[in-house]
Amino acid sequence: MRLLLCAILTLLAVDALSQDMSLSAEANGIGSDSVLSFNRIPYVYASAKGSDVLWDFSNVQDDGNEDIFRITHLSDSIIEVSSSKEILNLHMTRTGMYVSHRESPLYKTDYPEKKPLVPFPFHYGDSISIPFKGEGTYCGDHVYIESGRSEFSADAQGALVLGKDTLKDVLQIRSLCDYELYMDADSMSLDVASRKNIREDIHYWYARGYRYPVLLTVRKSVFDKVKPVTVMETAYLFPPDSQSLLVDRVNEEIRKKSVLAKSSETRFILDTFHYTISNNGNVFTLKCSTEGTVTVKACVCDSRGIIYRQQQSECIKGEEFILHFDCQSLRKGQYIIYINVGGAIYNDKVVVS
User: Is the pTM of this model over 0.85?
Assistant: First the structure.
């Protein structure tokens, strides 16, 4: 029962005290860290869009494996990121992060038109399409060209549940990268070489006050003409408690300000919100008043946490606000009305007779 009630409060509080989350080079570019560790998790699918989304990843657990990335700042704008699989050279600008070079024991690629990773600044509702082009060699003797574009969209924001924690002010960024790859042993034959179509579908979840995505999924599909050849899926977790250990003064300050602002706003709501609940023939009427304009959410549930009625609306400053819950068809017994006002939670027991 306790877990169900927690789920109800989480559901009601999706947009409580939330703000529009946005990415910036200062808060979300590569930091001064020398090593980053991302935990591998089973691939998760995400299709939610909108401004009031709740992502429930409470059951997601890492599989005990992690990928280590070593960071070397080659200059103020060029950063080398190396792992056990490959080495990337990233070009950092105020408008985003771009790949300028990548290599592994099998391949080397230079990007005369840099491949974008994340655009800056980026807000909910933003979208952008960026072309790129790469030239490289495979196994030292096969040349190839890759050419395409990456389309970015910030198509969802809301709250994300990880374990027992709920992160608010979360922004989902989707990167859909489509490109063609031509490869041949003879560089003069590239225009007639066998062509592969590749799609990289990446979802990032960024939370306010944390530099790196707390969750990341990658789905890479390789097509021979229109026929899929291979599909690879990977997902990573970089939880908030791990990111909190990083030396990151910018995001530390953002987290402090966020806590203070939410505490102050919650206190104001508690001091100025007034309500009554009346019962007329098992139709419950909630009357509210407040000194500030806020969103009010309310639901009727039983002791097991099952929700039977739910409503939400704006409570305007200085005006009386009324919600009706018709419970005549419910079983006789005791129920609970939960009320969420900008993140402050109230509850009253009522009886259907």
Answer: no
